[in-house]
């Protein structure tokens, strides 16, 4: 939990409203996992929201999210409410899934999966916000711009490639929302297999074939695109599509030439085969607070000179939800009554945990680790 920030009292009206919205979000795409422990932290303006992987607390910005919910003293317009509700959908997605799949051969336990998971959570939020707003009683709200533009665009592109008559986009998004996060690429690979290769791949060979289809999805840019514009994510999806199409053709040719011979491929999870590779997701750092996009930057996918983006381009700046000089703690907290300080507020310093949405600049001198650190 982010120390130094106040807990929202469970009897407060805004807490009860968040609790209602959180459970409503879970009913739209039910999951067996619920990592939220019931603690709600009123965050600052640096980010919109996050889920602490260690404590299970959810932090939501008092200024950008909580004040736009019913039960607060101040509510903004439709755009602000839409982003607030999208943040709840995003964080509910993270809290509703496990991260690892230690025994699954096709699980990917690598740092690059953080931005894959952020892309999945943001795609889910954008897909569900219209129905969620109406069901929650907020009326028809506009679909807000994604706060992970590049991961959102990359996952959206992969969903288009993986969807088809046997497994549609809705089915894939339901499965991705259930997690575990380490199996996101395996689910997308299964969509490709079912829609493009089910007629040639025997059931007993499908795990190995999915492993082969995961390989072209392990684009090296995944680990760097968190704060980039949507055009970068589109480029990643196009790169993957070229290699994925080639792999599909290779698999077809293999079974045409050797119909009784399994396709040679190994799953990415070495630990599932009893090989310790020391690359478990649970011990890897969560995303940095700086991995966000400045919404005042050039239009998605473009440079200031109008040329096309390339992998490696970054959109620098404070990031969405960053504090402006005119903002202060007093104004952002005035609508919360009876707010209590979080435990350990004076002894520990915060970190953003997993699923931080709309964060601003990285706090200087802090390591990007989840949970809390002692001074």
Keywords, please?
375 residues; alpha+beta; four-stranded mixed sheet; two-stranded antiparallel sheet; 9 helices; 36% helix; 6% strand; elongated; disordered C terminus
How does this structure look, described?
- By secondary structure, the protein is an alpha+beta fold.
- The protein has one domain.
- It is 36% helix and 6% strand.
- The protein has 9 helices and 8 strands.
- It has a 4-stranded mixed sheet. Strands 1-5 form a two-stranded antiparallel ribbon. A two-stranded antiparallel ribbon has the order 6-8.
- β3 and β4 form a beta hairpin.
- It is elongated, with a radius of gyration of 21 Å.
Tally of individual domains = 1
Oligomer: single chain
How far from one another are the termini?
15 Å
Categorize the overall geometry: elongated
Side-by-side strand order of the widest sheet: 2-4-3-7
Number of helical stretches of at least 4 residues: 9
Counting DSSP E segments of at least 2 residues, the number of strands comes to: 8
Structural class by helix and strand composition: alpha+beta
Describe this structure in a few short sentences.
This protein has 375 residues and is α+β, with helices and mostly antiparallel strands. Helices cover 36% and strands 6% of the residues.
Q: Topology of this structure?
A:
Blueprint: E1 6-7, H1 13-28, E2 40-43, E3 49-51, E4 58-61, H2 78-95, H3 113-135, H4 149-162, H5 169-178, H6 184-196, H7 206-214, H8 230-257, H9 329-333, E5 340-341, E6 348-349, E7 354-357, E8 373-374
Parallel strand pairs: 2-4
Antiparallel strand pairs: 1-5, 3-4, 3-7, 6-8
